[in-house]
């Protein structure tokens, strides 16, 4: 399976993971290790960066893991830029997952504020990975603004409904000049495999792993599904046809009867 790059970092794993909703930090650690994920997002509001023994950060102290702080909880571009700068100072990384969702019920990302924040953060030298609707026009505008990747949703965050936006993901992937990471709504390994089969560069999965009865086993299932989906994409899927076509020609066999 091919490696891929975002900005100046190269990744072997195309499964990105989150740290929310696990029953405890030890279980989170074991699941993340099983996933072999190399990019793990963490909400700045959930960690105490002044505490050397913070339960989340301590378990993420692994040479393989790159931390991706997110701005979850902010409602405007101004708040997002402020949160990103706090994260850069506290965690010593200029990478940020940009999340701006003013509606607490559906957590829909605000496209206008997201574009504003991306423009400002890119000017300040951040590697910006914005969480967005599956909007092909917005993706091109974000590219112009200097985004390092785009993270369109498959369905509402945490819903486990799968790839309800697949027609738009197809367009985004076709047009993208930056990596496309499908984020939010992925509920089953088959969803992740499908996203990879159509050419997504990576998937970010949190809830589906964290709330399963066996997060470690589910992490392995997602890892395997993403590898299978990517290999299928690289091998080129056969095109669907309208009529039946025998996989083994029968003509010669029938002629002998």
UniProtKB/TrEMBL annotation:
InterPro entries: Aldolase_TIM (IPR013785), Thiazole_synthase_ThiG (IPR033983), ThiG (IPR008867). Its EC number is 2.8.1.10. The active site is at residue 97. It is found in: Cytoplasm. It is an enzyme of class 2 (transferase). Pfam families: ThiG (PF05690). Keywords: Cytoplasm, Schiff base, Thiamine biosynthesis, Transferase. 1-deoxy-D-xylulose 5-phosphate binds at residues 158, 184-185, 206-207. Residues 5-249 form the Thiazole synthase ThiG domain. It catalyses: [ThiS sulfur-carrier protein]-C-terminal-Gly-aminoethanethioate + 2-iminoacetate + 1-deoxy-D-xylulose 5-phosphate = [ThiS sulfur-carrier protein]-C-terminal Gly-Gly + 2-[(2R,5Z)-2-carboxy-4-methylthiazol-5(2H)-ylidene]ethyl phosphate + 2 H2O + H(+). Signal peptide: none annotated. Pathway: Cofactor biosynthesis; thiamine diphosphate biosynthesis. PANTHER family: THIAZOLE SYNTHASE (PTHR34266:SF2). Belongs to the ThiG family. Homotetramer. Forms heterodimers with either ThiH or ThiS. Catalyzes the rearrangement of 1-deoxy-D-xylulose 5-phosphate (DXP) to produce the thiazole phosphate moiety of thiamine. Sulfur is provided by the thiocarboxylate moiety of the carrier protein ThiS. In vitro, sulfur can be provided by H(2)S. This is Thiazole synthase. It comes from Reichenbachiella ulvae. The lineage of its organism: Bacteria, Pseudomonadati, Bacteroidota, Cytophagia, Cytophagales. The gene is thiG.
